[in-house]
Design goal:
By secondary structure, this protein is an alpha/beta fold. The protein is built from 27 helices and 22 strands. It folds into four domains: 185 residues, Rossmann fold (3-Layer(aba) Sandwich), CATH 3.40.50; 78 residues, no CATH class; 121 residues, Fumarase C, Chain B, domain 1, CATH 1.10.275.40; 215 residues, Rossmann fold (3-Layer(aba) Sandwich). It starts with 22 loop residues before the first strand and ends with a helix.
Length: 721
């Protein structure tokens, strides 16, 4: 039975009217409109005031310390630079024949939790709002987000930017778009693009350090030394636009025409309604160039961020810098080669000043610095210089380094170290309260100077504010209020939603074990032995594949050494595993089903505890060994202090506790990937039962405290052999 909008009579989809945003819930519902903020006409959403005016009002309401612009990274910390709309044809998509109630949803039936999520997405994107969603595995969040967002984009002449942190998620997005096209007759242009290096077909790219790849590629292209880039891409682009392709297929099409796959992807993206890419395309210094290439300002985009629990750390990493003696020595060498005595002297003096500050520190020790702790002694020392024309202010050093970097680039340097030093010092000089400054003495005795982004919202907030709308989702986005706060989303424009897992909670019993802990003061040979015994006994009781994820590689190695004598088939994670190596692990686990099963040993937050789907009940039990709190350090202290100032009484949770709990939830969720999967979860640290930690878990992840995990879980293992 169809329901109709009580306001305009249009058939409702997912309980909402796509024409006027009215609704129906058993009685008539008035149009929903945020007074003085959003107006609607014919289903389109517009804000009162230009985007720049809205953002200006937002800045006025914030604390001035939090809005200081980092002039060192002005192209990334500023609000999005104006982008003129290019004369492209991306507005030519066709919605096809939407289902009268399901819209573009590509399946005949929709689950209750999925329906609620899709309805919330539809409401948010049509109103120009943001949705922060904790949507556990099984909700079907990709289809539930893409279908209503795409429908709204076509109605409102917007574009979709789908951001993922892992290439495996790209395939799910592309497959969903294909299903929408096949089931609903929708016709849209879509491009799937990953990093330029990963798409590059050149064999000699492996000889280039990843950090140097972008400059190496640019130099080859400018000098017409890359045949792939020089080859015209018109025919390849035309072929790509004929369908919805996985990135591997786009690469094959490009190589068939002999041209650069990344060039083809970016040319195709100019006329695409849907662009699937990595976080870095929006949350790095690439952003302005990408938007300029696409020919659209951010206000034309509906942004979908998948696996968004990774976004705060990615933003922080992208906008944090460090300086080492080696980098400074290389910058000095470049200045010498260019016969720039003044810059050479500046660099020498800078190294001496930092070394003097680091001298009292013990190896591994850190100290927090203020901006003037470095600049004051540096400028004082330089005021005593003997060279004619020596500059007296640090900003003159920035100019000198920039000039040397340009000359070094012309001379063929792939990564001018003088440019890196200039970037670091500019951030140090002009950076604001959102950054921390730390001097660390490494265990080798060398110093390292850090300029660390503490507040990801400093970067992400203006980006989301400029976008038309955003859907920020993950299966472990808990608590969603924290992610709203950390990403700088305006509360009045943001909806928070938590959805229950659609799976039977009895499919995943969770136990916390008494008497075991990774707490440093309680670590002993006896404790290590007890943990190893529990992991081994659980594996034998499960009668199938199991996994144990540890708080660190050191802890993993300590326990794995004890497990080697147990006669078990062990699969041990190594650092920086490749995609092929991860697939090999899955193949090994699949092959071990016919035997007694294999025991996988990995690290919390590592490549095997997040982003890997152990499908078809590949794991019978997952043990989380230890509490993965960040090691003590000045950076953690600064994070907690910063968030405490910004969000009173939440600093420790935001900066210390919740990030650890997210790693736990990610690892614990590896075992249940489908409605028929059954996997026990063991928390091998009694502190998980403490209120300060247990309250950080969602309601469907409340552990039972037990003495003997094998005895407690044996009925579960026996019931599902």
């Amino acid at each position: 039975m169809l329901n109709f909008c009580p306001t305009c009579g249009t058939a409702l989809m997912l309980g909402l009217c796509r024409k006027c945003n009215g609704g129906f819930s058993g009685q008539q519902t008035a149009h929903r409109q945020a007074p003085g903020r959003v107006s609607r006409s014919g289903g389109n959403v517009s804000f009162s005031g230009a985007p720049s005016e809205r953002r200006g009002r937002r800045r006025d309401r914030r604390d001035p310390a939090e809005t200081s612009r980092d002039q060192a990274t002005i192209t990334v910390a500023k609000e999005t630079a104006p982008v003129e709309r290019a004369a492209t044809r991306w507005k030519g998509g066709v919605a096809g024949e939407p289902h009268p109630q399901l819209g573009l949803f590509p399946f005949d039936t929709i689950r209750e939790g999925q329906k609620g999520f899709a309805r919330d997405v539809q409401r948010a994107v049509r109103r120009g709002e943001h949705l922060v969603a904790h949507a556990p595995t099984g909700i079907g969040k990709t289809a539930a987000a893409l279908a209503p967002a795409l429908h709204a984009a076509l109605d409102q002449e917007k574009r979709l930017l789908v951001l993922t942190s892992k290439q495996s998620q790209h395939r799910i997005v592309v497959d969903t778009l294909r299903s929408i096209q096949e089931r609903r007759g929708t016709r849209v242009a879509s491009v799937d693009v990953i990093s330029k290096r990963d798409m590059c077909p050149r064999l000699d790219k492996d000889d280039v350090h990843p950090a140097a790849f972008a400059d190496w590629c640019t130099r080859l292209c400018k000098k017409n030394l890359c045949d792939y880039f020089s080859e015209g891409a018109k025919d390849a682009v035309a072929e790509v636009r004929q369908g919805i392709h996985h990135v591997e297929e786009l690469v094959d099409i490009s190589l068939t025409h002999g041209c650069c796959p990344h060039k083809v992807a970016m040319e195709s993206a100019k006329e695409a309604q849907v662009i699937t890419c990595d976080y870095n395309y929006l949350f790095s210094d690439l952003r302005d160039r990408i938007l300029e290439s696409l020919g659209s300002p951010l206000e034309d985009f509906i942004v979908i961020v998948d696996e968004a629990h990774n976004l705060p750390d990615r933003v922080r990493a992208n906008f944090s810098l460090d300086l080492t003696p080696w980098t400074l020595d290389e910058a000095r060498a470049e200045a010498k080669r260019e016969r720039d005595q003044v810059t050479d002297l500046w660099c020498t003096t800078l190294a001496e000043v930092i070394a003097a500050m680091a001298d009292p520190l013990e190896p591994g020790e850190e100290m927090v610095l203020a901006k003037t702790d470095l600049l004051g002694p540096l400028e004082e020392r330089m005021s005593q210089g003997t060279l004619d024309g020596v500059a007296r202010k640090a900003k003159d050093l920035l100019d000198g380094l920039q000039a040397v970097a340009k000359l070094a680039t012309k001379a063929g340097a792939a990564i001018p170290r003088s440019g890196q030093v200039q970037e670091f010092l500019a951030a140090w000089v002009y950076g604001g309260a959102a950054h921390g400054r730390i001097l660390r003495k490494e265990k080798t005795g060398n110093w390292r100077l850090l300029h660390t982004l503490l507040d990801p919202g400093h970067i992400a907030g203006p980006i989301f504010e400029a976008a038309h709308s955003a859907v920020i989702m993950s299966g472990t986005l808990y608590p969603p209020e924290m992610y709203r706060d950390m990403l700088g989303l305006r509360e009045a424009r943001t909806r928070i939603r938590l959805y229950n897992s659609p799976y039977d909670k009895n499919n995943r019993p969770v136990v916390c074990v008494k008497g075991v802990t990774s707490r440093y003061k309680d670590r002993s040979e006896a404790m290590y032995d007890r943990i190893a015994t529990m992991v081994a006994d659980t594996h034998r009781a499960a009668r199938g594949n199991t996994a144990a994820f540890f708080l660190s590689y050191h802890f993993l190695e300590t326990i794995s050494g004890r497990l080697e004598s147990e006669g078990l088939e062990l699969i041990v994670e190594s650092k920086a595993m490749s995609k092929a190596e991860r697939q090999q692990v899955l193949d090994q686990l699949d092959g071990a089903r016919g035997r007694d099963g294999a025991l996988l040993l990995g690290v919390l937050g590592g490549s095997l505890s997040e982003g890997v789907d152990y499908k078809d009940n590949l794991l019978r039990a997952v043990s989380v060994v230890g509490l993965p709190l960040a090691p003590p350090g000045r950076e953690v202290d600064l994070l907690v202090e910063h968030f405490e100032r910004k969000f009173p009484r939440k600093g420790r949770e935001y900066g210390y506790v919740y990030p650890a709990m997210t790693r736990v939830l990610q690892a614990a969720g590896r075992g249940v990937r489908g409605p028929d999967d059954r996997c026990a979860v063991l928390l091998l640290d009694e502190r998980y039962a403490w209120n300060m930690y247990s309250r950080c878990f969602p309601d469907d992840f409340r552990p039972s405290l037990v003495d003997d995990p094998v005895h407690a879980l044996m009925p579960f293992f026996d019931a599902f052999p």
